[in-house]
């Protein structure tokens, strides 16, 4: 029989510790119970534990100190915080310090076992990622989060293939960086990488940009010109914002992908090239197909290997790492002495939702370095994250469901908003009575948690958000309910 995973229970109330131990034993989990922080630190020093059930209120120290030690020493253990109703805010903060999940007293045996089981699975997945050798930098990407490790592996696998790759993600998430990474990892790396933005070129000129033209093909065609397809011969053609392409040109692109041949505009001579096509969009391609704006046959021809880049707000553990890299690079480029962030600046950066994603973070850091002096970049040097107008307004108020600061506290809808599908959600407009979006969001999240039998991690996975997002929102909801009561 395989050795059962070992669990460390840190609980100073003997009666509760006995109940939790019996819950675990009935499900086949071995546990060791200690009643103080000192004992917990000793047991952790011995090693061998996969999960810690940690009460924050211990007789000799704050449980947060143990959590910090686990984080600082990078111990391979998942920490589950046990807390009372009065310390939910502390529990949310503990999630920022690396806790995997938290249990709010009182909780049932089922809730405890589901949480422990998920924590053990999380540890197994983490070890798999570690075994693959965690990468913090990858062909222009910065980030060591699980989501990015998965993307790096997909790029590794896709690079050697000839299949088309379809990259999706919000504006500013690094779709062109992803396309270039695929090219650099591929056998075509020594050949050209040619990017073409389908949304930045007038549709009348788009065919010529892709396939080229001959002299006299149209007004202004004063000579023969090779298009992107010819320029990329042997290499990779990257079609960014592919969903902006005109339907007529989509037909010609489909024929080109199927045969590898094309005619320049104004020419009857058939030309052939050997290229790998990578495309990207910040829209939902399936929704574009359903709306009739994108050919279904072209979609399935292009959507062979899909890669979805997560928004920066769903990469909590990567945000500061990326910001530090930008700080060092831009300080050197601008001849400044900045080397680090203050604690307040770190908190501000981590708490912001970054609706403009990595591009916005990049601009904010560069802006702050150019306009300030010193070795430590402080919160006062980041006014755009405090809601002050500093030229970054293009990222504020333009993202559905965010307030003027770009933060996640959402309470108003713009003119017309299409809410999540469901029996009681529908398209609404200014003329109808509007329920604040945070209430609708609260109901949706609470329904998901209830459907998952209280398992917040599972609910977050199904909602395609981080568990820490739910914990933060629970705190926000309490504040909003106080204001509206």
TrEMBL record:
Give the matching CDD domains: AAA, REC_NtrC1-like
Checking SUPFAM superfamilies in the record gives:
CheY-like, Homeodomain-like, P-loop containing nucleoside triphosphate hydrolases
Tell me which residues bear 4-aspartylphosphate.
55
- Coiled-coil residue windows: none
What's a Gene Ontology MF term here? ATP binding
| Keyword Plastid set for record | no
The Response regulatory domain, residue ranges: 6-120
PROSITE patterns from the entry? RESPONSE_REGULATORY, SIGMA54_INTERACT_2, SIGMA54_INTERACT_3, SIGMA54_INTERACT_4
Which processes are annotated in GO (biological process)?
phosphorelay signal transduction system; regulation of DNA-templated transcription
Q: Which residues form the Sigma-54 factor interaction domain?
A: 141-370
**Keywords of the record:** Activator, ATP-binding, DNA-binding, Nucleotide-binding, Phosphoprotein, Transcription, Transcription regulation, Two-component regulatory system
- Nucleotide-binding as a keyword? yes
- Which protein, by its recorded name, is this? ATPase AAA
């Amino acid at each position: 029989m395989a050795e059962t995973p070992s669990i460390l229970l840190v609980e100073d109330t003997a009666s509760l510790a006995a109940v939790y131990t019996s819950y675990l034993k009935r499900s086949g989990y071995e546990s060791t119970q200690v009643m103080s922080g000192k004992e917990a630190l000793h047991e952790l020093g011995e090693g061998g534990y996969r999960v810690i059930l940690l009460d924050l209120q211990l007789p000799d120290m704050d449980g947060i100190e143990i959590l910090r030690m686990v984080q600082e020493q990078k111990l391979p253990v998942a920490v589950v915080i046990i807390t009372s109703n009065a310390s939910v805010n502390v529990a949310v903060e503990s999630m920022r310090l690396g806790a995997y999940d938290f249990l709010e007293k009182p909780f049932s045996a089922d809730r405890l076992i589901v949480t422990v089981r998920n924590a053990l699975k999380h540890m197994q997945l983490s070890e798999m990622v570690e075994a693959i050798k965690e990468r913090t930098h990858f062909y222009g990407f910065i980030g060591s989060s699980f989501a990015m490790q998965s993307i790096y592996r997909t790029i590794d696998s896709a690079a050697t293939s000839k299949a088309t790759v379809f990259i999706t993600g919000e504006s500013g998430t690094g779709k062109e960086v992803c396309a270039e990474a695929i090219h650099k990892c591929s056998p075509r790396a020594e050949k050209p990488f040619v990017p073409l933005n389908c949304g930045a070129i007038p549709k009348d000129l788009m065919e010529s940009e892709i396939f080229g033209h001959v002299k006299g093909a149209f007004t202004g065609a004063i000579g023969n010109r090779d298009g992107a397809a010819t320029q990329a011969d042997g290499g990779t053609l990257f079609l960014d914002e592919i969903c902006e392409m005109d339907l007529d040109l989509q037909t010609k692109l489909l024929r080109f992908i199927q045969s590898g041949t094309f005619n320049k505009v104004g020419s009857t001579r058939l030309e052939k090239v050997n290229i790998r096509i990578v495309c990207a969009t910040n829209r939902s391609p399936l929704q574009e197909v359903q709306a009739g704006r994108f050919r279904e046959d072209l979609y399935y021809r292009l959507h062979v290997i899909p890669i979805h880049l997560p928004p920066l707000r769903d990469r909590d553990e990567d945000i500061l790492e990326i910001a530090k890299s930008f700080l060092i690079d831009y300080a050197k480029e601008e001849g400044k002495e900045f080397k680090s962030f203050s604690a307040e600046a770190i908190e501000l950066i981590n708490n912001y939702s970054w609706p403009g994603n990595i591009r916005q973070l990049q601009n904010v850091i560069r802006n702050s370095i150019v306009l300030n002096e010193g070795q430590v970049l402080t919160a006062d040097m980041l006014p755009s994250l405090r809601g002050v107008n500093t030229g970054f307004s293009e990222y504020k108020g333009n993202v559905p469901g965010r307030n003027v600061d770009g933060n996640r506290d959402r309470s108003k809808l713009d003119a017309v908003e299409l809410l999540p599908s469901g029996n009681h959600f529908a398209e609404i407009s200014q003329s109808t009575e509007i329920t604040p979006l945070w209430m609708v969001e609260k109901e949706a999240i609470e329904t998901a948690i209830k459907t998952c039998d209280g398992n917040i991690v599972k609910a977050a996975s199904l909602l395609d958000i981080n568990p820490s997002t739910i914990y933060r929102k629970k705190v926000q909801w309490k504040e909003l309910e106080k204001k509206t009561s």
